[in-house]
Amino acid sequence: MPHIPYDSLKAKLKGQRILLVGGAGFIGHNLAMELADMGADVMIADNLMVNSMIENSFNPEQDPIQRQAYLDFLLSRFSILREKGVQLRNCDARILIDLGRVFEEYRPTKVVHLAAIASAVDAKQEPGLCFDLQLITLRNVLELVRPKVDEINQTMFMSSSTVYGDFEGDTVDETTFPRPEGIYANAKFMGERLVRTYRTQYGLGTTVIRPSALYGERCISQRVSQKFIENGLTGKPLLLEGGGDGRLDFTYIKDLVQGQVRALALHESPDDSSTFNITFGNARTIKELADIVKEIVPQTILEERPRAVDKPIRGTLSTERAQKILGFKPEWPLETGYRQYCQWYVDAWEKAKRKANDL
Question: In this protein, which residues make up the domain named NAD-dependent epimerase/dehydratase (predicted)?
Answer without folding.
Answer: 18-278
